[in-house]
Amino acid sequence: GNIECPIGVAVDGDIRSAFEINVKGDVTVNGSIEDAIVQVEGNLSVGAGVLQGRIGSVSCGGNFSARFIENTRASVRGDIIVSDNAINSSLVAGGRVEVLEGKGTIIGGHTAAVDSIEVKVLGSRMNIRTMVQVGVSFAALQPIEQRLRDIEREMASIIIAAGMGFFHVLESSDAPEDPKLQQYLRRWRRLERHLARPGRGGD
Fold first, then answer.
1. Any idea of the CA torsion for 57, 63, 65, 69, to the nearest 10 degrees?
2. Which of 50, 112, 158, 192 has the smallest number of CB atoms closer than 10 Å to its CB?
3. Distance from the first to the final alpha carbon of the chain
4. CA dist list (Å): 81 to 10, 115, 149, 166
5. Kind of pairing, strands 37-40 and 20-23?
6. What are phi and psi of 33, to 5 degrees?
7. Sign of torsion over alpha carbons 75, 76, 77, 80
8. Residue 46 near residue 32 (C-beta atoms within 8 A)
9. 24 burial type by CB count under 10 A (0-12 exposed, 13-18 middle, 19+ buried)
10. Residue 58: is it exposed, middle or buried by C-beta count within 10 angstroms (0-12/13-18/19+)?
11. Distance between CA atoms of 28 and 187, rounded to whole angstroms?
């Protein structure tokens, strides 16, 4: 089930999809994190990778390290250290972002750091849009993070209202016949567009 703990936590395996983790201390995960909502007031260390989906996010009051990060939204007051690659993610660090080991790539998404961003390879030959920001204060980046959290909450509300079968609607190439599902699908697609450009408001 979900974890809420006033002290540090060590997870031997993985944190699975749809879990919620709220920990006051440090968290160490030997496996991976899959589409979970993780809030850590201390440091977060992930032995494998963080592979988020439609509703997962990471919020960390200390430093955040992982082997790889993919499709992840992370707001970190300290440093973000990735030992292989960061792909299609929204990363905000109050310190620095470092992706220097392994492939050492940042591809797609939006990466922002107050101090510095160090990376072997930025972007890709496939012209995937990759945005980086350096030198902006952590406080100035918070409106973007708040916008992302608002989008995530609205996405979660759609899933609750439509039911878990809504994921089949998202994966189908055919439009749903139910008018209510059509409405949910339009809202979802609009939110996906906002996730791709979180710094901009409106429809």
1. 30
2. 192
3. 36
4. 19, 13, 22, 35
5. parallel
6. -115, 125
7. negative
8. yes
9. middle
10. buried
11. 36
